[in-house]
């Protein structure tokens, strides 16, 4: 029986640049590094950075990171001040900033949770919405 997500591995082309981004810009905690990668964490999320050739991505697939609503504006301003590249404007419930990491992986910093998103759907349903 599956119990939940275990970890996320991202292919990165430049380990130093990626470590600086995830640790210094996004405040992940570093645990170990080696020639071919590094292990980091944020909350209960374990992230592996693996030196490899990243795949080209042009879809909406992304990883969302949680932040308290009270901290969102200041954190978003600090990311913009650090020159992060934004790939999308927020059009959904909650405050979100969509950014790219140094290898173009799509990330989102989001203030909200599943319950707030479901509440938003009750007020303004998506086309073809079915409750499961």
Offer a quick outline of the entry.
This protein is of the alpha/beta class.
Task: State the end-to-end distance.
Answer: 21 Å
- Which outline best applies? globular
Structural class: alpha/beta
Give the overall average pLDDT.
89
CATH-level-4 superfamily name of the largest domain: 2,3-Dihydroxybiphenyl 1,2-Dioxygenase, domain 1
Protein name: Glutathione transferase FosA
GO molecular function, one term: metal ion binding
Enzyme class: transferase
EC number: 2.5.1.18
Feature tags:
4-stranded mixed sheet, globular, 2 domains, about 130 residues, 2,3-Dihydroxybiphenyl 1,2-Dioxygenase, domain 1, alpha/beta
Q: What does this entry look like structurally?
A:
- This protein is α/β, with parallel strands linked by helices.
- The protein has 2 domains: 1-53, Roll (2,3-Dihydroxybiphenyl 1,2-Dioxygenase, domain 1); 55-125, Roll (2,3-Dihydroxybiphenyl 1,2-Dioxygenase, domain 1), CATH 3.10.180.
- Helices cover 26% and strands 33% of the residues.
- The protein contains 3 helices and 8 strands, in the order E-H-E-E-E-E-H-E-E-E-H.
- The strands form 2 sheets. A 4-stranded mixed sheet has the order 1-4-3-2, with helices on one face. A 4-stranded mixed sheet has the order 5-8-7-6, covered by helices on one side.
- Strand 2 and strand 3 (37-42) form a beta hairpin.
- The longest helix is centred in the middle third of the chain and has 13 residues, at 69-81.
- The chain is globular, with a radius of gyration of 16 Å.
- The two termini are 21 Å apart.
- The model has no long low-confidence stretch (mean pLDDT 89).
């Amino acid at each position: 029986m599956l119990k939940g997500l275990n970890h996320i591995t991202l292919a990165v082309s430049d380990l130093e640049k990626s470590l600086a981004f995830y640790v210094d810009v996004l405040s992940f905690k570093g645990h170990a590094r080696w020639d071919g990668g590094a292990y980091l964490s944020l909350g209960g999320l374990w992230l592996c950075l693996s030196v490899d050739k990243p795949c080209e991505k042009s879809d909406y697939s992304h990883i969302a990171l949680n932040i308290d609503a009270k901290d969102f504006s200041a954190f978003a301003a600090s990311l913009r001040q650090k020159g992060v590249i934004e790939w999308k404007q927020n059009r959904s419930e909650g405050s979100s900033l969509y950014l790219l990491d140094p290898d173009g992986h799509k990330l989102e910093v989001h203030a909200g949770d599943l319950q707030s998103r479901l509440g938003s759907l009750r007020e303004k349903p998506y086309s073809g919405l079915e409750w499961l």
